[in-house]
Amino acid sequence: MRTLYPAIEPYRTGYLDTGDGHQVYWEISGNPDGKPAVFLHGGPGAGCSPAHRRLFDPKKYRVLLFDQRGCGRSKPHASLENNTTWDLVKDIESLRQIMGVEKWLVFGGSWGATLALSYSETHPTRVSELIVRGIFTLKKREIDWYYQEGASNLFPDLWESFLAPIPLPERGDLVAAYRKRLTGSDPKAQIEAARAWSIWEGSTIKLLPSKQNSTSYGQDQFALAFARIENHYFTHGGWMDDGQLIRDAGKLKDIPGVIIQGRYDVCTPAITAWELHKAWPEAEFIIVDDAGHAFDEPGIMHQLISATDKFAG
């Protein structure tokens, strides 16, 4: 089984001034003469971690990672202003120009897969290869499954904690009820909601629930950005038509690609990956039978690193 490459540090870092109120942190690591790639993190609102650099052979890749608007090391923290899918697509193009490349490999998992598809369908000539994992396309059906009813039936004990901040009369639309608290003026209610929202995801993304994930997702600063930004994007359906990314997947037909999906992914169920496979049959489609959603589950990680190795030449 393939595992992460050794830890490395970036050799170049900076901030992209977006011109509309955001400073987006970026970093480049690996071989300065290597194959260019960009890593798109999940959430939205999760930020990058040092482990993400290790999904690429540092002798063969030059990889750019960045914390999307409002999260991680980007500023201002947890900001929802000028923070949409299409703002992020524009940022990726600006970062490509900073990198100084005509094309690059695009890699994204979960929400990062959503963003990778959005970028690649908008700028297909800028994408040399596309690797996506844990496919999520912001359909209302997908959001309802995870935040209204569906996943709740598999984790009724954890779901009870997710419901706790929301009074019974407001539970008919939990995304809206959470938005009221996450964007409200009561700091205590905001943090309570942010932690409940984030811990729900941290507790359910692996095939076998991880206490470490639950703890890290519950840290106040992380939770605030993660919950506010996710809820903001889900409230607005990503500022795209329902089903748009599958509808427009034909634009990817000339891009070599790999779709990787955990069979028991509760966060982003396999039906969406299957729909993408049917709409983009040119890509290799891989189901990992003993995995959930997280990139660091052994079977998922093996396939991700096998994919980056495959395209390294």
UniProtKB/TrEMBL annotation:
Ranges for domain AB hydrolase-1: 38-294
Pfam families in the record: Abhydrolase_1
GO molecular function terms listed in the Swiss-Prot or TrEMBL record: aminopeptidase activity
UniProt entry keywords in alphabetical sequence: Aminopeptidase, Cytoplasm, Hydrolase, Protease
Catalytic reaction list: Release of N-terminal proline from a peptide
Enzyme class, spelled out: hydrolase
The organism's place on the tree of life at top rank: Bacteria
Listed InterPro entries: AB_hydrolase_1, AB_hydrolase_fold, Peptidase_S33, Pro_iminopeptidase
Localization terms from the record: Cytoplasm
Transmembrane annotation, as ranges: none
Enzyme Commission number(s) from the entry: 3.4.11.5
PANTHER family (UniProt xref): PROLINE IMINOPEPTIDASE
Family: Belongs to the peptidase S33 family.
Name of the protein in question: Proline iminopeptidase
UniProt source species: Dongia rigui
